[in-house]
Amino acid sequence: MNRDGAKSRGITERVQFKFVLSFCALLAGLIVLLNTYPIAASRDLVASEKESSLLSQASVISSSLSTLSPLEPESVGQVMDLLELSSSGRIVVTDELGIILYDTGSPSGKGKAAMLAEVALALEGKQVFHSVFSGGAFVSTAAMPVRAGGVTLGAVYVQEYDTAQAELILSIQNRLVTISIAASVAALALTVVFSRALTRRITRLAEAIRVVRGGDYAHRLKPEGNDELTELCEEFNNMTQTLETTEQQRRRFVSDASHELKTPLAAIRLLADSIEQNADMDEATMREFVSDIGTEADRLQRTTEKLLDLSRRDDGVQAARVPVDLGEVARSTLRLLSPLVYTKIAPRYFYRGALLSSAALFLVFLLVPMPDWAAAAITGVMGLLQGATVPTLVIICCDVFPERTASATSIVVFGVSLASMTSPAAMGAVIASAGAQAAMLSVTACTVVAALALPRRR
Questions:
Q1: Which of 193, 223, 389, 444 could form a disulfide with 233 if both were Cys (CB 3.0 to 4.6 A apart)?
Q2: Residue 458, pLDDT score
């Protein structure tokens, strides 16, 4: 294995080597076929031509000699001289016993027995032809009986030694060999180049798979071309996109599941701390907190069961739907968070501090001369402080009336809206009767009274 996780392979195990080897085997077969079939076909064509020519020549001689009975050397010689046959080979005429009567290849052989298989077959009444490509020449032989009145008088043997057509075929063969070698070299070079380009794309795909296997699901390949490998790269990109989306959903699911599990655990811890820190807590409140701890434990169990149901949904199991009372959920959540609110936020102190700070800033605004930008800044801070008192007042009222949280919230919102609508008219009446400064002081006094006059927590 390499450092990047790739398996090390020998040269004989690589796809490129196998591809080149297969192509070389195919190329070798084509070269062998190219160098054998045309030459064999040419030789067969020349042999067929020689067969026709020699048998025709032997037939002419046999027909001319069939008028002689019996065959004598002198008469045979005269007939052959009259025929004036031009041949680059040898012509032999024998009697019925195979004794040579005429021989252009070896005149001294007259009177001797012809030790030729073709002559023996011709004396049996058969036509014989044989052609051999050897020694850079075509050696063709033909034999035919000389017959008259159904009687075999002798035999004619014709042999031709042709080097011209043999040299032509040899030159064609040499050219084919040269062309084959050049084509093989060029094809082998192109095969190496194309196979390397092919395997390079496959190698890039394998490297990308190793990257994705390492956890980098955002890795993508750049498709090149429009072939099957391009389609494979596109499918790889689609697969990594799906894996990336699945991984994001898995992480989000783990985060949500952790949150869902931590929420009841945090509520249980908060309720337990409230019981531990409040030694003088009455028995009813303690029972309520203990009941809430049990409720949160049940919630934790239900959350765990829901997570198990989600895992079973991959197997096609459908979860049952249960109606949920959102009002009860809101009241329970508010009841559970109220200890945290009073422990961490202290809404009563925040409410009083915000209103008193707003009143102090209002007095500074009235009594201290200041530039416009400072006045605008103080006005903005007062608006923020008074705006923050509204939700704080809602929390306080819900704590005072825990069984009527919705009504307490509605009353606070209604009171704030009513004050917003009536305060301009009241301010106008006070300004008209007592002046602007008296109106401002009355607003400050109302703010201080609102900060101090809070109902006690039950």
A1: 223
A2: 45
